[in-house]
Write a structure and sequence with these properties.
The chain has seven helices and five strands. It is an alpha/beta fold. The protein has one domain: 3-Layer(aba) Sandwich (Rossmann fold). The chain has a five-stranded parallel beta sheet with strand order 2-1-3-4-5, with helices on both faces. Helix 1 packs parallel to helix 7, helix 2 runs parallel beside helix 7 and helix 4 runs parallel beside helix 5.
Length: 196
């Protein structure tokens, strides 16, 4: 019955979020503090991902550049997924795996943060982005699922891995969106002095 199937989607989503909260909340706090310190020091946050993760990158950057829920000055964030001329020229002249890495090499600097989003943790262009970030001394916040895939072994002790404890792509993406909202809310709270 379709109604039962829909209800089960809600129940599964709620259960996954409860499990993720227990596993991820303290790490999300660390990521909020890292990103806030970067922004307060004149750094920026770059975000990248593919498909739904590209949309999440853009959502995150828009919430920082414009505003989340409270009025505040714009914050420096870039979604590396939006410039079609840049993306297609890199993919055409070099390879698709380089579309984010080359942008990081040109725009990134020590003190910035990379938000690297991949549901599976295996996206080759996000992996290359992590390599490019590390080469510049940029810390990484990885947002993954499915045990983190190949990205898990690339992260250093200076990075933060927000890995959703789930296997199903839809559930992982739902927690990714909630995590992005937690990041935005936490950054605002620290920037505006609502929290210490």
């Amino acid at each position: 019955m379709l109604l039962k199937r829909i209800q089960q989607q809600f129940l599964d989503s709620a259960e996954t979020k409860q499990q993720a909260m227990a596993f991820m909340a303290a790490l999300i706090e660390q990521a909020v503090r890292l990103m806030t310190d970067s922004l307060k020091s004149g750094g920026k946050i770059m975000a990248c991902g593919n498909g739904g993760s590209a949309a999440d990158s853009q959502h995150f950057a828009a919430e920082l550049l414009n505003r989340f829920e409270k009025e505040r000055p714009p914050l420096a964030a870039i979604a590396l997924t939006t410039d079609t001329s840049t993306l297609t020229s890199i993919a055409n002249d070099y390879r698709y795996e380089d579309v984010f890495a080359k942008q990081i090499q040109a725009l990134g600097k020590r003190g910035d943060v990379l938000l690297a989003i991949s549901t599976s943790g295996n996206s080759p262009n996000v992996i290359e982005a992590i390599h490019a970030a590390h080469a510049l001394g940029i810390r990484v916040v990885a947002l993954t699922g499915k045990n983190g895939g190949k990205m898990n072994s690339l992260l250093t002790s200076d990075d933060i891995h927000l890995c959703v404890p789930a296997e199903r792509t839809a559930r992982i993406q739902e927690v990714h969106l909630l995590t992005i909202h937690c990041l935005c809310d936490g950054i605002d709270a620290l920037i505006l002095g609502d929290l210490q």
